[in-house]
Design brief:
The chain is α/β, with parallel strands linked by helices and 375 residues long. The chain has 2 domains: 184 residues, Rossmann fold (3-Layer(aba) Sandwich), CATH 3.40.50; 180 residues, Glycogen Phosphorylase B (Rossmann fold, 3-Layer(aba) Sandwich), CATH 3.40.50.2000. The chain contains 14 helices and 13 strands. Strands 3-2-1-4-5-6-7 form a 7-stranded parallel sheet, sandwiched between helices. Strands 10-9-8-11-12-13 form a 6-stranded parallel sheet, sandwiched between helices. Strand 9, helix 9 and strand 10 form a beta-alpha-beta unit. Helix 4 runs antiparallel to helix 5. The radius of gyration is 22 Å and the shape is elongated. The termini are close together.
Length: 375
């Protein structure tokens, strides 16, 4: 099975990809479709335009009403037969049951591509039924012919806690593009323009944080920025602004952020790349959640200096980032604030080429193909 024909099943809105999790799906199948035929059965609100060479068929119900997709089992089975599908990939564990059912009907093996250990994420979010989902998530991963995990740490956790077979698990991470690389000269030009437009002094240090603010770990990070970091930064005599961009920011948090003179709140922006390419330092004070922090990956791909908590940096080998990522122990906000103050004076080399080699989508897909061919 050198070039398998793949049916991917996506249970939520992804296309067109805007947020980090959506880009993780889009980038993977865009790259995978360069090497094999890919069909994507997606939740019905998705755009039906091609993703790379992959064909998107938006007709499924979203994962919150996922059991209603029993209605579409026969259509999926017919697609498998008509297009000679070799393998099924389920994005997230939500529709793992559908992979089990389709395998029973068609004889085709299935893979779960995990973006997070959802059990741990739901526990952190204090969802009342997280233990029940934990039983389900373990069941579908045990049933899968292969499990792809977004970080090595999560793979090892699943092997240990769920007793998965190591040979049925693989780390298939998030990818970036070397075309995002921003030189120091280009960054200086962009930041100077921004400082002038916002009437800020030339020595103002620009920090950046972004994310979907309806996600608990990101809302918790807002609380940390406002109540832990800014009060500690008052002790240092330097000019700075923290630029925050994010979708789904509630009215209460908008009021708080707009009331902070140290914060420039931009809400949702259409072109987030502008901010990655003009700010001085990306901050990632995220201590909750699982998976890889895509915003941090994107910042590094733009050659940004980054400061992150340990939890927020999981899945990113620090030796692949050179001097670009400083990792602070979780909840040590004094050390985090001190690192922010010291950031402008610290000369840092460009991110190593090894970072792009490790996290290049093409390299990631090649590893995935080798794993898929071995099923």
């Amino acid at each position: 099975m050198n070039h398998p024909t793949i049916l991917a099943i996506v249970s939520y809105r992804v296309f067109p990809a805007v947020m980090g999790g959506q880009k993780c799906v889009d980038g993977f199948y865009r790259a995978l479709s360069q090497h094999c035929t890919v069909w994507i059965a997606a939740e019905k609100s998705n755009a039906d335009s091609p993703v790379g060479n992959a064909r998107v068929l938006p007709f499924l119900y979203q994962h919150k009403t996922g059991i209603a997709n029993i209605r579409w089992v026969y259509r999926l089975y017919q697609l498998i037969k008509k297009e000679s599908i070799d393998l099924i990939i389920i994005e997230h564990s939500y529709f793992g049951w559908l992979g089990i059912l389709l395998r029973r009907l068609s004889g085709k093996k299935f893979v779960i591509r995990s973006h997070n250990i959802e059990t741990l994420r739901f526990r952190d979010m204090r969802k009342p039924l997280w233990r029940i989902y934990g039983w389900y998530e373990q069941w579908v991963h045990r049933a899968a012919d292969k499990s792809f995990f977004i970080t090595g740490e999560e793979k090892e956790w699943a092997i240990s806690k769920w007793q998965l077979l190591p040979e049925k698990c693989e780390t298939i991470t998030y990818g970036v593009s070397a075309t995002h690389f921003t030189t120091a000269a280009a960054r200086q030009l962009n930041r100077t323009r921004f400082l002038q437009e916002n009437q800020l002094s030339p020595d103002t240090v620009l920090f950046f944080f972004n994310g979907s603010m309806d996600y608990l770990p990101n809302r918790d990070a807002l609380h940390i920025i406002v109540h832990e970091l800014i009060p500690r930064l008052h002790a240092f005599a330097f000019a700075y602004r923290i630029i925050i961009c994010g979708s789904n920011t509630g009215s209460d948090w908008k009021q708080v952020l707009n009331g902070q003179p140290e914060i420039i709140f931009r809400d949702f922006v259409n072109d987030i790349d502008v901010y990655y390419s003009m700010t001085d330092c990306f901050i990632n004070p995220v201590t909750l959640g699982t998976g890889i922090k895509i915003k941090l990956m994107d910042a590094l791909s733009f050659n940004m200096n980054c400061i992150s908590c340990e939890n927020g940096a999981r899945g990113i080998p620090i030796n692949a980032t050179g001097e670009k990522m400083q990792v602070i122990s979780n909840y040590n906000w004094q050390a985090f604030a001190e690192a922010m103050y010291a950031a402008p004076a610290k000369p840092v080399k460009d991110i190593p080429e090894a970072f792009y080699q490790l996290f290049d989508w093409e390299s990631i897909v090649q590893r995935a193909l080798i794993s898929l061919q071995a099923i």
